[in-house]
Amino acid sequence: SILTVLLILAAYILGSIPFAVVASWVFKLPDPRSYGSGNPGATNVLRTGKKGAAILTLLGDAGKGWLAIVLARHFTAPDGESTILIAGMMLAVFIGHLYPIFLKFHGGKGVATAAGVLLGLTPWLGALTMLTWIIVAFLSRISSLAALSSALLAPFYTHWLLQDNILTSTVLIISVLMMTRHRSNITNLLAGKETRIGK
Ligand code: G3P
Question: Do residues 108 and 38 touch, judged by C-beta distance below 8 A?
């Protein structure tokens, strides 16, 4: 229906809001695309040393992913969950973060937004995936390695917890897109040159 199209478009525009750029502006920091990895994301904002700005980035980028799922559920007809709408909006909000209309389609890597989406699907899925991130980040101190590990496992967690082929496939697409976004990180990891958190 037209409502479905409008909601998917709304999720894309919501996903397009670059909280790394917004938080940097709020904290009077340089544009995150001008230093470090150049990525508009919480990890790169943390490289300024301003933890508050990194936390705001993380909460904003995750929050918009979560909100897209909440909106999908809200607008779903009362005669049952429309998995298609949820899947469409979760993919749209994620694509919005990667290819934002507000940044000439040059966005982030989608880690926080994916975490928000998974939390919205079910808190246990979000918690398990974030726990994976935390464990790998704690052991390696490398944000991208934690993200790649989480992206690898998230589709399995989704299948296990939700038993829904549409949602599992959508999470798989999100994971693959996220991994392709980490190409420069993978190159650095293989060369042993990836920066550690807080460096
Ligand atoms: O949050 C994205 C993270 O996985 C990598 O970020 O800035 O180290 O490329 P960055």
Answer: no
Distance 145 CA to ligand 1 centre (A): 9
Q: How far apart are CA 99 and CA 91, in angstroms?
A: 12
Q: Rounded to an integer, what is the distance from CA 177 to the centroid of its chain?
A: 11
What does the DSSP assignment read for 158-190?
HHHHH--HHHHHHHHHHHHHHHHHTHHHHHHHH
Model confidence over 22-51: pLDDT tens digits? 999 999 999 999 999 999 999 999 999 999
The residue whose CA is least distant from atom 4 of ligand 1 is 144
Q: 128-151, pLDDT tens digit by residue?
A: 999 999 999 999 999 999 999 999
Report how far ligand 1's centroid is from the alpha carbon of 194 (Å).
10
Taking residues 70-92, report their average pLDDT: 87
User: In sequence order, what are the residues at sequence separation of 6 or more whose Cβ sits closer than 8 angstroms to the Cβ of residue 92?
Assistant: 8, 9, 11, 12, 15, 68
User: Which amino acid residue places its CA nearest to atom 3 of ligand 1?
Assistant: 144
Question: Exposed e or buried b for every residue in 32-69, given b needs 16+ CB within 10 A?
Answer: bbeebbebbbbbbbbbbebeebbebbbbbbbbbbbbbb
Pick from 21, 34, 35, 43 the residue to mutate for probing ligand 1's pocket: most ligand atoms within 8 Å of its CB. 43
